[in-house]
Design brief:
A hairpin with a 4-residue loop joins strand 7 and strand 8. The strands form two sheets. This protein has a five-stranded mixed beta sheet with strand order 2-8-7-4-5, with no helix packed on it. Strands 1-3-6 form a three-stranded antiparallel beta sheet, with no helix packed on it. The termini are far apart. The chain is built from one helix and eight strands. By secondary structure, the protein is an alpha+beta fold.
């Protein structure tokens, strides 16, 4: 009798572990469908001040079918990586990166950036060629 209870307990524990592992695997694989795919944007921190008027933007969006930067579509490679840039106006700017995934869900990351333009015109009043 003792051997039968020991075998049943072992079978019950193994079955429970297998069922829990299977359910964990299923939930892990459908999490993007339930919550949307993660969007990671690598740029300056939100609220930053930048020197110059060009802001490079890179990031990743696994399972993304479309990525837009300020409403303009950009390309995504097979690994979900994207790279683009935005020309900023002097002063306050809003940059919006949005993605739509294969499940129809959309996520948006908005950056608020202040651009301080650098001097773009050279001034050399002591030039011997200008008389």
């Amino acid at each position: 009798m003792r051997k039968i209870i020991g075998k049943l307990t072992l079978i019950t524990i193994l079955t429970g572990v297998l069922v829990a592992g299977f359910l964990g695997l299923v939930l892990y694989n459908i999490k993007d469908m339930l919550f949307g795919t993660p969007l990671t944007v690598n740029a300056v921190a939100d609220g930053s001040t930048v020197d110059g008027t060009y802001l490079p933007i890179t990031g990743s969006a696994k399972h993304a079918t479309a990525i837009t930067v300020n409403g303009r579509s950009i390309g995504v490679d097979r690994q979900g990586q994207f790279s683009d840039g935005v020309i900023l106006s002097p002063g306050y700017n809003i940059v919006e990166v949005a993605e739509r995934d294969q499940f129809g869900k959309q996520k948006t990351d908005t950056l608020h950036v202040v651009a301080i333009p650098s001097a773009t015109v050279a001034d050399n009043s002591a030039s011997p060629y200008q008389r």
